[in-house]
Structure formats: C-alpha cells, structure tokens
Amino acid sequence: MKKFGIGIVAIVIVGLITVMSLQKPIGAWIFQRAVEQNVERDTVSKLSDGLHVGLCGTGSPMPNLDRAGPCNIVIAGDQIFVVDIGDGGSRNLALMGLDASDLDSVLLTHFHSDHIDGMGPLMLNHWIRGSNAAPLPVYGPVGVEAIVDGFNEAYATDDTYRTAHHGEGVAPSSGGGSEARPFSMEGDSEVVLERGGLTITAFKVEHEPIDPAVGYRFDYGGRSLCISGDTKKSANLERVCEGADLIVHEALQPVMVTQLQEALAKQGNDSAAKIMFDIKDYHASPEDAAESAQVTGAQMLVLSHLVPPLPSRYLYPAFLGDAENRFDGILIVGEDGMMFSMPTGGDAIEQTNLM
Fold first, then answer.
1. If both were cysteines, with which of 2, 225, 343, 355 could 50 make a disulfide (CB 3.0 to 4.6 Å apart)?
2. Would strands 198-204 and 300-307 be described as parallel, antiparallel, or unpaired?
3. What does pTM read for this prediction?
4. How confident is the model over 96-116, as pLDDT tens digits?
5. Interatomic CA distance for residues 24 and 245, integer angstroms
6. Catalytic: 114?
C-alpha cells in the first residue's frame, strides 16, 4: 500500500512537470481559441425580433469589483441604444458581445458624474471599431450640450492621434466624439424619438436637487420597457410606465446605508457619514420600486444601480427587505451581464447571462 501511494505521488509529479514544460504551447493554444471565440461572437445577430435590455452596469459610485457604473443597453429590432454610461460600462458591452460601433445613440437620464463618466471610452469605441464617419448622437434633457462639449474637448487631442496613426480609412476625422441631441420637457413626459416601429418616451422623475432628471419608456412590437434613472418613488413613473412588461428600477436599501452612516460617524469621518445620510432622500428603496412596479402592472422588476455594494448574493434577501411582499411579478436583483428579451407576438420574458 505504501509503494502504491508513492507511485501515485510520482505520477502526479511527472504530470505536473509535463504540464509546466508545455505551458507555453498550451497557453498559446488557449489564447488563440479565446481570440477566435470572441472575434466571432455577435450577440445581437442571435436575438429574436423584439425588445431586449441588457445590464452593462448595475453599480453605483461606491467601489464594487463586480459591478460597473450605471449602464443599460436596449435593442429594438435593428436599433441599439445605451441608457447612461457609467465607468466600466463600455468594457462590459464588449464582454457581453455587443459592439459599440453599432450604437444608434446614447440616452442620458441626468448628469450625475457616475451616469456619464464612461462616455469617453464609449465614444472612442463607437468611432474606431466601426470607422464611423459621424459622431455618436447623445440624447438628453436641455443641458446635455455642455456634457457633450466637455467630453469632446477632453478627447479632441487624442482623436487627432488616432487619425494620424490609423488613417482616415479607419479613424475618419469627421467621426470622433459625440453630438448633443437635447430635448425640452414641457410636460411630465415627451416622445423623444419615433423610428422603425420604436417609440422612446422620456418622463420626469424625482431626484431633487438634480434637475433635469428623467427616465425612459421604450415601446416596440407590442412590448414595453421602462428604465427609471435615479429617482425616489415616482408617481409620474407609475403613470407613464403603466402596462410595461418590464421595469429596470434603481434601488437603495436605507437600513444598510444607515449602518454605513453610523459606522463612518463612529470612525470620525463626518463628511462621508453626511453623504450616507443625504443620499437616502433622493433614491428609491427596493420596497418603493416594488410598490411602483405593482401599480404599473409590470410582469418583471429588475433592480439596478444598487446601493450599497453587494459583494455576495447571500446579501440579496437583506437588501430586498419587504420588497418581495409588495410585488406580484418576478423580482430580480440585477447583475452585470444579464439580458432580458421580450420577443414580439407574445408576453414571454427570457433571461440570459452574457458575462
């Protein structure tokens, strides 16, 4: 028995030595396979005709290794839109097999830094990856012009480097940056785009003192989707999103944030504690989001822009609080890479994970 044990150990050692000696060719083969699979990956071409929403960022300004900043991608037939673009959102789009060069436009809900700080990489990828000859359109309430002008100015020098290095054929000088498409909100809601059977409606939400702040409703092929943007519980969202199949709603758990606030105050970090106190009054709790989704009659509620960070799914029940008892539909804590598909001609909602 002792000799048998020694033999097993010897075989294992020989195996490890063999694997290590072949590390270079094996590594090269693995990398080549990964390149082939990723280059060939095309998520959009595999989607059925319908309305689809992907979560390219479910986080917040608080550090979280598993979640990029707020980012949603909406696909309606052959039209593709990004709603908000937080830090890391552009990276996640690529990891999800979604090509930024195919984007029709970006829609911003408001101008908090965590909803726009991924704009630079997104503009660059939209331009370079598809050799686009026109800037990326960016829709938003009046004031979006200043945001777009700032990013364009910041990236202007880099744009000249790209064209000089890669040439007009790859990086046409007319295509860098983005172009503002402002809309004014004369009422509580306004149709901002109608094209190819798709209607996009902006609606006011409550995020004071942030003004303007809007959410968006998408209607296509008999299916509908709402994205809340940042808001506390909003009666206007409930009105505009009535009958929506799915709602992506921001969520902050006040009990958990209060615990953070108290810990920071005990540590003597009064400024950070004050921020934790302040943010509770302009965000919706999971229970608030659930109640709003119930009012609209939505089939599914997906929580995103999660505060505080949730490093483990084990924390989800504590984060949800009483939300599950306030909504009769399907309630999901969003994660980066999730996609929800609503094919035309039915009422099904299909969930996949692209990361």
1. 343
2. unpaired
3. 0.92
4. 999 999 999 999 999 999 999
5. 51
6. yes
